[in-house]
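User: Some background: our group keeps a shared notebook of sequences we're curious about, and every so often someone picks one and asks for a predicted structure to add to the entry. Today it's my turn. The entry only has the sequence so far, pasted here. Could you supply the structure so I can complete it?
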Amino acid sequence: MKQTRPKKYFLLLFLYILVSIPFVTNAQWYDPEKVNKKAGEIYGQAYEAAQNAEYTNAIKLLNDALKLEPKFVDVYLSRAGMYANMKNYKAAVTDFETALQMDAVYSNTYLLPYAISLAGTGNFTKALEAVNKFLQTPGINEQSTKAGNYRKKSFEFAVAYDQKLKDKGITNYVFSPKNLGDVINSEALEYFPSFTIDGSRMIFTRRVNNDEDFYESNYTNGGWSKAAPLAGKINTNLNEGAQNISQDGEWLIFTGCNYPEGAGSCDLYIAYRTKNGGWTEAENMGPSINTEFWESSPSLSPDKRHLYFSSNRLGTLGGKDIWMSTRLPNGKWGTAVNLGPTVNTKADEGCPFIHADNRTLYFNSNGHEGYGLTDLFLSKKQTDDSWGNALNLGYPINTIDDEGSLIVTSDGETSYFASDGMDTRGGLDLYSFIMRDDVKANRTLWVKGKVFDKKTNAGLPSSVELTDINTRKLISKLQTDEEGNYLVTLPVGKDYAFNVNRKGYLFYSDNFSMKPDHNDSSLTVNIPLQPIEAGAMVVLKNIFFDSKKWELKEESKTELNQVVLLMTENPQVKIQISGHTDNVGTGADNLALSNNRAKAVITYFQQNGIDIKRLSSKGFGATKPVAGNDTASGKAQNRRTELNIISN
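Assistant: Of course. Here's the predicted structure to add to the notebook entry:
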């Protein structure tokens, strides 16, 4: 049988990424027609096995061929290609380099897949050298030149990114993903994890025999429980996937494809957690969200006001874009808007995930500059609610292969993803890793509790608002459930005004100072609301003055405007503002200071349209303390402004 040079099929499947070695051979000596005949026949069998994607068997046959012909260069090149296709880039590089050292001239046309494999190991500098050498090869065709230039651009990006990290002093990051183990992963495919804010519950998608269903696991006693299918009516004989559980664990939004009532190929659906812990039958989210096109990979903001998702609907900047819909006061979803060119490109963007800090958006894209194929990025919401430029998360979080979805928990660093490239139980498994510092989201705490009637103890559905004290910007606004339960997230590093409102009741006021080193992860604040009636009183905890002064600080206006609204909605109500101080200073000075501060508040109300006949003020100095004056915290409680209902 005439021996011919083996086809390059093995290698050209794997246009991936990386490096080059010093080549010392100046002339070709290898002749494929002179290899051992039996070895050539075995090589042919390996070729047939590789065409059927039977790589393990093909590699075994190639190993057998090498025993008969140790200098069979094509075996090394072909085995390298198969290793690359199996994402064993380290082994691929070893075989490519062996072939290049044996005969650099013969193996020269394989410099591009060699470079790609080098990049697969993270050696981008050497990969760039190799692809540059490839592009200097005389007579390469237009397609090869285009492929080489594409890889060159990716390698240049990778080298520059690595240098930027070094310039920032980031040199010791270790990417060490951990498999979540047999209680979560199985021989089937597991992907799209989703978590409640406290990290106690995980829901993910498992595909068994091409049927996708949702599974749940709970974190107890330091580990995850054995995953089980979700209870209730949410799993069906149709395919459910790409889900997102709300931070409070009460909603589940997911992608359903080819549902009978669907508007397009894939739509978004919502189910609600029942009192017995199961889930309701899913509901289509309607025409503001779903179109005749494709909608998928939903992510719900922590306050449930915004829904992010990917769609190829009309109006995209390219293929698939990331869109956002806002939940209206009546509970319906508004028309979705495109996130714009800082996030979306002329290519595809998908798998959005909005972090609990409500401003860090992670997503994947093959349109922004990166390592090749699909990378993971983040964009930060700016003060004007626009989105900042996309930032690549860098190697080794991103690789030369496709990256899918990424979930980051409330601590800003614990991250989860699905991968088939490591110690999987079978195909895609779920893994966790620690995020690099410069691409972390803000650590986010949370406050939960119940709003109830102070007199009857009955739960009250109410509005909960969180405002940045310094900027007076509304951070989140949410509704409690029908029993008054709420959960609100608090990214560290800011001071927040916290207000709870219900018509017919005196609003509740509190504030939280979330310093970066805040030790708590959660707070429980149960909130008694008082009916608007004579004798009701609330401490206005977000009225601020400089020490020994009575001019209202700008940060006070959010709370003051809450009182203006209260007075406007209840035109018969008359109030008294009472000023109080701690015991520092003389009694006369404190009395005067408290009087002036109370009057300053009344003046603000009058300037904002409230009839002075409905307003009165009084200063009490330090005569009515509510805590001891022997500690800083006690003194802070005594320095207060109270609102008292005189009549209604």
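Suggested note for the entry: Residues 1-26 have pLDDT under 50 and may be disordered. The chain is about 25% helix and 30% strand.
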